[in-house]
Amino acid sequence: MSGAIVAIGGAEFTMRPENEALHDYVLSHARPREDGPLRICLLPTASGDPHDQIVSFHAAMERRGCVASAISLFRLGVAPIDFAEHLLSQDVIYVTGGSMVNLLALWREHRIDEIMRVAHERGIVLCGYSAGSMCWFEHGITRGGGAPAAVEGLGLVSGSHCVHYAQDPARRDCYRRLVGDGTIPPGLALDDHAAALIRDDEVVEAVRSRESAAAHRVRPGDGELADEVPMEVRLLPVSATAPESGLDEMRELRRARSRSGGGSRLGRLS
Amino acid sequence: MEVDSTVVQLPLEENRQIVAFGGGGFSMESGNPLLDDYVVELASRRRERPRVCFLPTASGDADHYIVRFYRAFSAAVCEPSHISLFRRDRGTADLREHLLSQDLIYVGGGSVLSLLGTWRAHGIDSILAEAWRAGVILCGLSAGSLCWYSQGVTSFHGEVKLVRGLGLLPWSNCVHYGSKQGPRDAYHQLLRRGMCPGYAAEDGSALHFRGSRLFEVVASRPEARAWCVGDGGDQVIETALPTRYLGEPATEEPPKAGNLQAVA
Distance between CA A79 and CA B47 in Å, rounded? Predict the structure, then answer.
């Protein structure tokens, strides 16, 4: 069975509760490993392999008892590894945001695109935010060239995908226009802190770690701009792994959640 | 391209210049600005306060690298800028226009494969060729040297690999030559397997080309050398090149370019 794909509209590895809840969600879809802790590898390619991002990823994942690693395509000289061997021994592969154009160009250059297909077929969970979310689909909307434009992804998931939906109006307009006029196929739009679980090319559910985050199906309608159909989005529980420093924010989130009636609207999406 | 009247133009072939460092400059030789001064001086013949653009692509546009560039290339002597291909939403809108308006384009070190892949994705490869033909001086170290040649030797990813560069210089290239045995062995191996002849440069040495001809070898350290290297049948032939140490005044008779060509 091919592995789950978790697409995240926008997130980070900083220790805020809304990020922590998404980390838990991603890891919950990995197949339990009998011979030890989960292995998770970061590919920070799309952002140019910044050191601080790699460090906070390690912190976030090691707090959860995972064996974390990162492949930096810009700093391989120090410790060369076999990409295929390393990636295919993982339970989860996590791709960060940045430039989707650069991400795919570099993966092609280093043959990582082919390895990702194999990883997916072997049941490894593939996930990521921003460019690292769109890369799994047939098309995404990149701002890697300045103005938003459509770019082809790996196509492991049918259709198109747009991230930072509520946060980036120019990207949203571009997406609705290109889906509306048929340039790219219909697809999935996610706000920051909204995520979708995809299994066997179907969206199983949409979730969020922040009350306001939305998810939409975007498909051609009568107008020039594509229609936005809101999806049901389940609010994720607060992470038990959240660190001390996030206590205040956690309390705030809990308060917000109790106001909304528990946020347990679990539902399968059509 | 429209000719910029504020820029001093050299005759056509002389006008196309590349300075390829075996290793050195602000990112490798802290406190020794000789190679950087050399390229800035070349650029200042085009414009009094030359425009210098840094391309840190091979490092993944590492922030600390960009900061060090701005420290080394002070606005007092030049007009510095950089292009980040990983954060284009925050930078120059028109890459071509910006690059063609420069006097010197300085390419940083890192992974040459990642460098070339990213450049191609943004069409920078053809813009740089256009800039070179228009007289913008190109320079760089390490990956920023290999990229200008037809073929380069890289062992950045562990295994030895031949990498195809932009091909502005019809030779092969190997950098960090003398610093350790690895690059030299790798280069010789590839030459015996049919890699085209070319140039090897040590850390601290730089090859200055006009057109595709080597014009001069300069060095920021008295002992740094460069070689012309080719397959001589049974063995690889290395010829040490006359090198001018930049820390001393120029000798009266500069080495003649004609004697410096790689054995084709």
Answer: 43
Pick from B91, B121, B156: CB nearest A102:
B121
β pairing state of A92-95 and A125-129: parallel
User: For B180, what's the count of Cα atoms within 13 Å in the CB-facing half-sphere?
Assistant: 4
Digit-by-digit pLDDT tens for chain A (270 residues) are 899 999 999 998 888 888 999 999 999 999 988 889 999 999 999 999 888 899 999 999 999 999 999 998 887 655 678 899 999 999 999 999 999 999 999 999 989 999 999 999 999 999 999 999 999 999 999 987 778 999 999 999 999 999 999 999 999 999 999 999 999 999 999 999 999 999 999 999 999 999 999 999 999 999 999 999 999 999 999 988 765 545 555 566 666 666 554 433 333 332
For residue A151, the chain B residues in CB contact (below 8 A) are none
CB contact under 8 A, A99 and B85: yes
By C-alpha distance, the chain A residue nearest B143 is: A74
User: What is the residue whose two structure tokens read 């306060």?
Assistant: B49
- Cβ atoms of residues A207 and A236 within 8 Å: yes
Q: Which residues of A does the annotation mark as catalytic?
A: 130, 164
| Beta-carbon contacts of residue B244 (< 8 Å; ≥ 6 apart) | B216, B217, B218, B219, B250, B251, B254, B255
Q: What is the pTM of this model?
A: 0.83
CATH number for the domain whose boundaries are A5-259: 3.40.50.880
For residue B10 the two structure tokens come to 């050299």
Inter-chain contact A105–B86, Cβ cutoff 8 Å? Answer: no
Task: Name the β-bridge partners of B198.
Answer: B172, B229
Chain A residues in contact with chain B using a Cβ-Cβ cutoff of 8 Å? 46-50, 72-77, 80-81, 98-99, 101-102, 104-106, 108-110, 143-146
Paired tokens of A26: 């991603």
**Chain B residues whose beta carbon lies within 8 Å of the beta carbon of residue A99:** 85-88
Closest CA to A10 of A130, A121, A165: A130
Spell out the domains of chain B, with CATH numbers in brackets. Answer: 17-260 (3.40.50.880)
The continuous run of DSSP H or E covering B206 comes out as: strand B205-210
3-state secondary structure of A5: strand
Number of residues in chain B:
264
Do A101 and B159 lie within an 8 Å CB cutoff? no
Contact between chains at B157 and A80 (C-beta distance less than 8 A):
yes
- Interface ipTM: 0.77
**In whole angstroms, what is the distance from residue A28 CA to residue A132 CA?**
19
